[in-house]
Amino acid sequence: MPGMGKGNAARVASSFRSSFEGIKLALVVGICGGVPHGTDDEKEILLGDVIISDEIIEYDRGRQLPDKFARKDTLKDNLGRPNTEIRSLLSKLKGYRGRMRLEDNASHYLTDLCQNLGPEKARYPGVDADRLFKPTYRHKHHDVPTCLLCAKYEKKEDEVCQAALDSLCLELKCDEKKLVPRHRLSNAKETTVAEKPVIHYGLMASGDMAMKSGEDRDEIAAKEKVIAFEMLIGLKHWSTLLSHLISIPWKAFGTF
User: Which 3 state secondary structure label does DSSP give 13?
Assistant: First the structure.
């Protein structure tokens, strides 16, 4: 695509429909920002897991009122649910046998892919690369003399410098005591075995904004019951092609 966002996705989808008239189903596969705490049987979502959407909501489509933002959630404003065939397939995949088979196959193919491409092009970065800070912990310069703007930060609405937003946690001296402990990563460290990707099913939020706030992420996730955020599917895209979204949580929010 020429760029990120629902508008670019809609234009590409329209072009596909005119060029390939026989398309019956489009699987939209990409990366997303995962909500750390899912709503299914696997309560933790880690980098590299796979999220298959049950339904899509446009969380940034609505009205900005003086006191709040009101999302349009009427029947006409919402995206249609998957058709009967897709819902039947999802029902089978959500079952214990279907889920285990899909996760085992995914892990097997990923291992083969990494071996074929080599460690320079594809490799598991290790559990230490999956770092989740508390949502209220701000990604900023923590060495006070370094930046006067970051030093003035006290609450969520306060500004931090652009250099901090573009820097790594190691460079900013982020406090590792603010990391959120996660059982799956702890178990992987103890057994020295790479964590297999887990398949999650749930509601996915779509928008034109890149979600970079842990607090806003958790607030929207709690309200809308979503487990991931993405920037690919919108109303025009969904109505142009019969689509289904599969995404992989990647670096997002400044908290991973």
Answer: helix
Measured CA distances, 50 to 8, 65, 144, 175, 218 (Å) = 23, 36, 39, 29, 19
Integer CA distances (angstroms), 15 to 8, 79, 207, 241, 255, in order: 11, 20, 21, 10, 37
* Element (DSSP H or E) covering residue 256: none
pLDDT of residue 241: 47
CA distance 50 to 91: 16
Torsion (CA) 187, 192, 197, 198 in degrees, nearest 10: -20
Q: Output the six-digit token pair for 218.
A: 């958790």
Burial 36-51 (b: 16+ CB within 10 A, else e): bebbbeeebbbbbbbb
Please tell me the least confidently modeled range out of 83-87, 98-102, 202-206, 234-238: 234-238
DSSP string, 74-143: STTTSPPPP-HHHHHHHHHHHSHHHHHHHHHHHHHHHHHHHHHH-TTTS----GGG---B-TTS--S--S
- Pure H helices in 20-61: none
Q: Rounded to two decimals, what is the model's pTM?
A: 0.79
Length of the chain measured in residues = 256
pLDDT digits (tens, 9 = 90+) for 31-55: 888 898 876 656 789 888 888 888 8
- The rounded distance, in Å, linking the Cα atoms of 59 and 206 is 6
Residue 78 in tokens = 């919402």
Quick count: other Cβ atoms within 10 Å of Cβ 58?
21
Q: Are strands 50-58 and 199-206 parallel, antiparallel or unpaired?
A: parallel
Q: Are 238 and 14 in contact (CB under 8 A)?
A: no
